[in-house]
Design brief:
alpha/beta, TIM Barrel, Immunoglobulin-like, four-stranded antiparallel beta sheet, 13 helices, 17 strands, disordered N terminus
Amino acid sequence: MFKILIVAITLVFTCLFSSLAQQTAKNAPKREFRGVWVATVSNIDWPSRPGLSADQQKQELIGLLEKHKGNGMNAIILQVRPAADAFYAKSREPWSQWLMGKQGLAPAAGYDPLAFAIEEAHFRGMELHAWFNPYRATVSTNAVLSKDHMVVKRPDLFFTYAGKKQFDPGIPEVREYIIQVVLDVVKGYDIDGIHFDDYFYPYPVSGQTIKDANTFAQHPNGFTNVNDWRRNNVDLLIEQLDDSIHHYKKHVKFGISPFGIWRNLREDSLGSATNGLSNYSELYADSRKWVKEGWVDYINPQVYFSFTRKAAPFDTLVDWWSENTYGRHLYIGQAAYLMNQKMEAAWRLPNQIPDQIRYMRENNRVQGSVFFSSKSFSTVARATGDSLRLDLYKYPSLPPQMPWLDDIEPNIPLHLRAESRNDGIHLSWEHPLIAADGETASGYVIYRFEEGEHVAILNPKNILKISFLKYTTFIDTDVVSGKRYTYLVTALDRLKNESVASSPVGLAAH
């Protein structure tokens, strides 16, 4: 009887500790996508206004990255092509008007905003996804365009809707052009991902019609229904882009951030129990199909709704999307910009977004989220940033792995050494040997353990530094004299597969 009691007590404690371990994992997962959109259109997030000097732009961007790194983010979704223009030098399109104040006006010689952003993000252990708006060409009826803008050079490739110019997705040459624009960035920059937002065919405007009848007549592709034809036009672009991106760089992720509702249940038995505008019917974007066919590496629906939004509750849409991931990653778009707004009482509750994160973490088919947008964390969502920094994102996190692109981990970093000096503990190591897929290391994770702590790399609280650069040295300045520390280093490849840890090195700080 006594033995049975001991076994029972042991089982209770085992279950308790197992439960606590699972809760810890859910509260602070080591792998989670934590992104933020940085919008450049109309200077929403960066730069703060057109015409800043290169140094001013750089300082603003560094400040922005530091804030998001401090809040626990590990990915920046930077808008590099807001309206058939460019925030990067290696482009066939003119410089954006939101950079220097006039479309086509270059910034200072030698300054490439995208290249700078990539370097600074990678230094901080943050991915950089280049965000394109594929079809939008102007954002206003009175846009002043450069002579090199495609609307000026090739007006036959566009239609006008609600006074704005948009590439006509039904023209084969348009699709090929957009693919080449994207590939300029894939080939020319060390990006981690290509990202499309929710603007495909235009959002409906009362009294407006899409003027693509002639295109439909010239390029029907076997379709007789114009709605199906439009959806197919978008499908063709997505499928061809997926193939083209991974042909040139297998490690570059391709993701899309559609409007939050694919189809409503009343429209389709496969749809969500919602009532609202849908990707499928209004925007001619069959977002579920892109995931099902494996044309995207991640889907990032904009679920900009609260738990109490009757037409489209947050939890209803998260659950629906999680049941339609087909093995691809699901990141939920979260509306930081709605915090403390008056349109709905739920957004004035400080726990709205933290509770959304907790809800997503209970679902192992959700791998993270992306917040719109950067500026919100300096204005209406400051308290949300505090919740991330102090609680939910307290410990660093690596982006989740994508085994369908690469499941080969790098080899172990070599010869980790540590030396205690007056300014801290100096670490150095050597690059690992080449792995089976030809990669060495594209970054490193440094772990630190205090005396008596279990030395293992599973717990993110022991992560001291994540870098997506190839530096092989680090100085730990946050040490206490006389205290003993143990360090490990692991290697990361481009898709954030992590190596086995190096042999531990322990020493006391001076």
